[in-house]
Amino acid sequence: MYTSPFSERYIQKMKALLGNSFAEYAASCSQPPCFGLRVNTLKSDPDTFYNNAAKAGWKLERIAWIPNGFYYGEEMRPGRHPWYSAGLYYLQEPSAMTPAAVLGVRPGERVLDLCAAPGGKSTELAAGLKGEGVLFANDISASRAKALLKNLELFGASNICVLSETPERISARFPGFFDKILVDAPCSGEGMFRRDPGMVKSYEERGPEYYIPLQRQILSEAVRMLAPGGRLLYSTCTFDEEENEGCIRFALDAFPEMRLAEIEKKDGFSPGIGMPECVRLFPHRIRGEGHFLALLEKAGSGTGEAAGGDGGSAPLSGGSCRAQEGFGAGRALRGALRTSRADGRSGGHEALTGVSDALRFVEGWGGRGRFEPGRVRLERERLYYLPEELCKGPAADRGGLRYLRTGLLLGELKRGRFEPSQALAMALPPGDGPGRLMLSSGDERVIRYLKGETVSLSEDACVCGIQEAARGGPPSGGWRLVCVDGFPLGWGRLHSNMLKNKYYPGWRWQ
């Protein structure tokens, strides 16, 4: 006889929802959950990663409906492998990978992840942009937004804007601005009962009735921020009809300009209740937990200043962020110093020298041709590289909203000298080259480095640094980029035959 930790009310609701397949669902709840990882396509392609993982003895199995997703066994610990610290993948429940994949962002688009923490879906959206356009990732909780920022920077995402705001405040600033919006709404979490039994108790305290008004409010603000012709993906990890199809019916009634778009059905996908365009994922029909997805489109062609034309970034007037060769242009220095003088914290010759050194540093580590000088800003001794969309229009005015990050933090000026950031290290491309300390994942120094310890180097590595400087290598001042299997982990600074650890303290292994 089936015994359940669920309340009788929940059991009866699921019987009414599933009919004859309820027994299959009930049986699936006693099965162990699935574990998945999603490859970061900013750093590797799925086939290459799969082959390298197989050589390392990993047993992975492809997730049928996620091109860069893999199952792994519970006995594995990929979160404690150096590849995780290099940002090669994100650990994510398989069905939760689906919303970002279905939204399908393209390079150059303006994208918003409105309820983004801890960042699983945001990291995939950022990878889809391929460094072009901008991703706004928001979470109303400041502590959760910090975790969101870490995961985006770990992935090497540079064209980001991380906020901790209410949807109402964001929509007041950005009406009709975004080409793509993901609303992975807070919900009663029925799809997580198998994975997290603690959710059952939470469900009894805060069931669907608590979340439905919140979901409708968030969805309404998201619609207001969507550009004409844009797409909005609404998702939850619950099975409740009113939290899912009910919220979509509300949106379609409240906003006549919105319509449902068809989501392609893969094996194991179920249609929505009375809405065949939607998708429901159940643990007895796929190897995953549970999700609901609905894709909405707003009428219009996407024309107008806020919508950005055809979905890409609109040209800038005056070319204030146009590409130039390298970082050596005087305009980059003048623009950065103009910001620093405005905040009254640095300026004059010291700031000019520090910014100049910083730009040469970034250029020497692979910045030439990858960064546009007009998008460099100095704010309170911190040097940022802004997405093009943050240089103009409503996004250029960042007053009044709580931002945790705007663009890529290149580093800081400390007493006039530049210190590169952890985020810059993660955004640099993989590969070998001057100034890189190349370690294999089996080298015990990798773990010591990730723990924040000093790392000893061979005499050859120290001599190599001297030779690199003599032949015009990176203007490093002793800086080294520590890499594992070719992928950057972070910075160190060379002193004799020792590498002083500069790995960001908040990321260190415990």
Quickly list its features.
3 domains; Archaeosine Trna-guanine Transglycosylase, Chain: A, domain 4; alpha+beta; five-stranded mixed sheet; Rossmann fold; 510 residues
Describe the structure.
By secondary structure, the chain is of the alpha+beta class. The protein is built from 16 helices and 23 strands. The strands form 4 sheets. Strands 5, 6, 7, 8, 9, 10, 11, 12, 13 and 16 form a 10-stranded mixed β-sheet that branches. A 5-stranded mixed β-sheet has the order 19-21-22-23-20. Helix 8 runs parallel beside helix 10. About 11% of the residues have low confidence.
Question: How is this fold's topology laid out?
Answer:
Blueprint: H1 8-18, H2 22-28, E1 35-39, H3 46-55, E2 60-62, E3 69-72, H4 82-85, E4 89-91, H5 98-103, E5 110-113, H6 120-129, E6 134-138, H7 142-154, E7 160-163, H8 167-173, E8 178-184, H9 198-205, H10 208-225, E9 226-236, H11 245-254, E10 258-261, E11 270-271, E12 279-281, E13 291-298, H12 330-343, H13 348-367, E14 376-379, E15 382-385, E16 403-406, E17 408-414, E18 417-420, H14 422-427, E19 436-439, H15 444-450, E20 455-456, H16 459-470, E21 479-484, E22 487-495, E23 498-501
Parallel strand pairs: 5-6, 5-8, 6-7, 8-9, 19-21
Antiparallel strand pairs: 1-3, 1-4, 2-3, 7-16, 9-13, 10-13, 11-12, 12-13, 14-15, 15-17, 17-18, 20-23, 21-22, 22-23
Helix pairs in contact: 8-10, 10-11, 12-13
